[in-house]
Amino acid sequence: MGAIHSSRGKSEGTWKKEVKPGDKFMVDPKGTDLVIAIMGATGSGKSTFINTLLGKTVAVAGHSLKSQTVQVQAYLLQYPQPSGTRIVIVDTPGFDDTAVSDREILRRIAIWLARSYEANMKLAGIIYLYDISHTRWERSSGRSFNLFEKLCGEAATKKIVLATTMWDKVTPEDGDRREQELRSDIWKDMVERGSTIHRVSSPGSGRAIIDFLLAKNDFRPIKIQREMVDSNKGIAETKAGRTRSDTFREPPVEAMI
């Protein structure tokens, strides 16, 4: 399913009023670009995943609850594709950061996705990373995943890979058990709607997931892109933006940036 979308969006869309001076976007977006977004909670291994995938250090990996990725960052992946086609890997800041509110993280991610959709860039897939070494599903994990589901929408689940990281920190038995718990409980609905579970357990895991997503040839936009660009909604009017206020975590005032 690789429908090509044409130029869209009103010249002064509601969502454009929410763009801030510090927001980053590509200087040369192309309609032939294929985008794969990397998402997940702070500390799930997004930066490490991207560095391994690209074969060089482009993203700063951290080991604390403060996200090392403050703004959405885009990187070009060297990948055999038809002439003119670029694979764009997008590193997103994680929810549940100690210094930035979840609402602000949502705004930054939503604005980038809206801009890319308006520029006719095609979203080929989303990889949601989760640290398998967590001994239980924390409330913060539930908050992050809830926002992620609403941001994507049910129609996009087939282009989502739920990828577990940090396999070197668990025994095979514990990892297998936790993965099965995710499959049969936490991630059950998404798996039933077409999402797949993969392990990031070797240097080649990331490239294998990229191959898997590109082979789907599914370039449908996700829910928040349609809401903001096609329906001209502000972020607060989207399904993710209308999430109950107690779902959004707000950092202490002195920590906010």
Q: How would you summarize this macromolecular structure in one to three sentences?
A:
This protein has 257 residues and is of the alpha/beta class. It has helices at residues 46-54, 102-118, 139-152, 172-186, 188-192, 205-216, 223-230; strands at residues 34-40, 73-77, 87-91, 122-131, 160-165, 196-199.
Please explain how this structure is put together.
The chain is an alpha/beta fold. 31% of the residues lie in helices and 14% in strands. It contains seven helices and six strands; from the N terminus they run E-H-E-E-H-E-H-E-H-H-E-H-H. The chain has helices spanning 46-54, 102-118, 139-152, 172-186, 188-192, 205-216, 223-230, and strands at residues 34-40, 73-77, 87-91, 122-131, 160-165, 196-199. Strands 2-3-1-4-5-6 form a six-stranded mixed sheet, sandwiched between helices. Helix 3 (139-152) links the parallel strand 4 (122-131) and strand 5. Helix 2 packs across helix 7 (223-230). The protein is globular. It starts with 33 loop residues before the first strand and ends in a 27-residue tail after the last helix. The relative contact order is 0.20.
